[in-house]
Amino acid sequence: MSRKNAMIAGLVTAAFTIAVFTYTLRPDGGSTLRKTSVPNPPQEKTIKKTALTQDVSSTDRLNRTDVSKHLRTMLSETDGKTPEDISAYAKQLQQGHGHIAMLMWIDFRTKQSSTFKSALPEGSDQENKQLLKYLNTAKTAIQRHQSYESPSFIIGNKKYYFTAQRDREGHYGVIALINQKILDRVAEHQLKNLRLIPYPKEGKYRVESVHADTLKELTVKTGHDNENASHYYENEIVVRFKNGHPTTGQLQTIAADIRSKEPRKLGYAYIFRSGKMNYSQLKAYFDHKWHPQYTEPHYMYLTNDTVGENTGAAVITPNDLLFSTYQWNLPAIETEQGWNLSKGSKEVIVAVVDTGVQANHPDLKGQLLAGYNAITNTSPPDDDVGHGTHVAGIIGALTNNEEGVAGISWYNKILPVKALDNSGAGTTYSVAEGIIWAADKGAKVINLSLGNYADSQFLHDAIKYAYDRDVVVVSAAGNDNTERPGYPAAYPEVLAVAATSANGEKASFSNYGDYIDVAAPGESIASTYPDNQYAALSGTSMASPHVAALAGLVRSLNPALTNKEVMALMTSNAVDLGEPGQDKYYGWGQVDIYKTLQAAGGGGVPLQLYPQHVGRQLKTLRQSLEHGY
């Protein structure tokens, strides 16, 4: 037998042996059988309303905790300082935290007080009387060396509360009036995010709603109707031509025929906007005259917001203010043990294609790279919704900094890409452009907490583009409690994520189906929010970044792994929560950070991935033989 043939035989034998060995020894993942029921539409609406109320309540509590910490810090850092220093500190604090409507500083030794932003809000006589009552109660409490928090109260159409702290020595006290506009913002956000209302509203963008399968016109009257609906621009069409790209002359002919300006081009596809034709007319025109490879609507994509025991590794408990009380989600997936194996690496970039990210949030300081705005192309990717900032914080909020929340990754850099506008909606073009831009800029993981029910070849091309460049693409399944496949989550190149609750069951709103790969926590997840605040949100949008962050940790620990191998590790090491093996509610189960990182190893090829590794060696050897190397 020749040396080359012996090598081939040896590798084939090794591949077969290792495959059998791996299958035989594969752990069951701590399988726990759970019976999962799917609520009907009225039940679903009730449950979603409860989730919304829970999110608002949790946001209220964690922001009260955050404000109290800032007041205690102010008392500590201004002890013994001059009135000018105290004034400067108060001004800086209020500039960075616009919800602090008023600060009152009291020196109990001199009986002097200073008030910053001293104009109190004015309402009705009854409202003003209530405000003064709570203010006086706050003063009385700190005079007695007690901290104080008032209930929420209404002035005009805004909600406020008072909070007060006194230093340990009893020399100083501080009272703050807090504007709770974040609660209304979270409520409005979650009404759309959990699809409790029709979203987006038809008419704003000349948008049509259609059945995702038939493209027949559909009227979305309730939030539940969204499960059958996809939204697209009625006067636009996406076209990919068979013979590459049309000539300048052909584009001029099209522009004259359909009365359009220069089309937008991305990859192989073009988007035409007509001044006189709707989508049906545009499709008939292109199919008849140009015989393209495909045409499809220009879809809109919307935000998709809404445990076995491991032993043997020390638990790392971060000192972040809100971690112990509010971040149930990180211990649920064994994050603290996982940090013993990997805390991430600045060399591995995780892109967040979303509504943008607040660049100067104190809990994201130093974590963000210069990103991209696919909506305007010229502006920075600032977040005017809150969704992207929340997603980014789940992945990489500063950990162990005594501030706010802990991110899953300590060191992976986040690449913010704004592909959704200030309503939380984006288009096929902007999302595809964001994906391609992130892949070209070196992202090794892309999180897509967004979706639609229409299968777009244009978007799929962009997904394939990233996948072919070894990117791990992770996407939220959707929040309509439906088995209908959502995209991009259902594409085979994407890791589809469902949401679980704190008790390890399917979240009531979470989509499900045979395309689900894994599940992750998605109920009342605490994370960063615009205006230097924090919010608790529910949704598969919140589940997806848990998985994206895990992919970042795996790729940081073992850079030799391909995207396919990283995805296989996360699914094969998930904690099985449903029917044994893969099921439609949990996929392969809820991700387990510790087990997955254990399996990933530190540099070699994990045993369970050795068959694929041998396969790649065989392919390389075969190519060498064919070329006579």
From TrEMBL:
Coiled-coil spans are none
Q: Does the keyword Lipoprotein apply?
A: no
Q: Which GO terms describe its biological process?
A: proteolysis
Q: Which residues form the active site?
A: D354, H387, S541
Location in the cell reads: Secreted
Primary residence? secreted
Q: Name one GO molecular function term.
A: serine-type endopeptidase activity
Organism domain of life = Bacteria
Domain Peptidase S8/S53, chain residue ranges per copy = 346-589
- InterPro entries, per this entry? Peptidase_S8/S53_dom, Peptidase_S8/S53_dom_sf, Peptidase_S8_Asp-AS, Peptidase_S8_His-AS, Peptidase_S8_Ser-AS, Peptidase_S8_subtilisin-like, Peptidase_S8_subtilisin-rel, Thermitase-like_dom
Q: Which UniProt keywords apply?
A: Hydrolase, Protease, Secreted, Serine protease
Which cellular component terms (GO) are annotated to the entry?
Answer: extracellular region
Keyword Hydrolase in the entry? The reply is: yes
A Pfam family? Peptidase_S8
Q: Which family does it belong to?
A: Belongs to the peptidase S8 family.
Q: What is this protein called?
A: Serine protease
Which species does the entry assign this protein to? Paenibacillus graminis
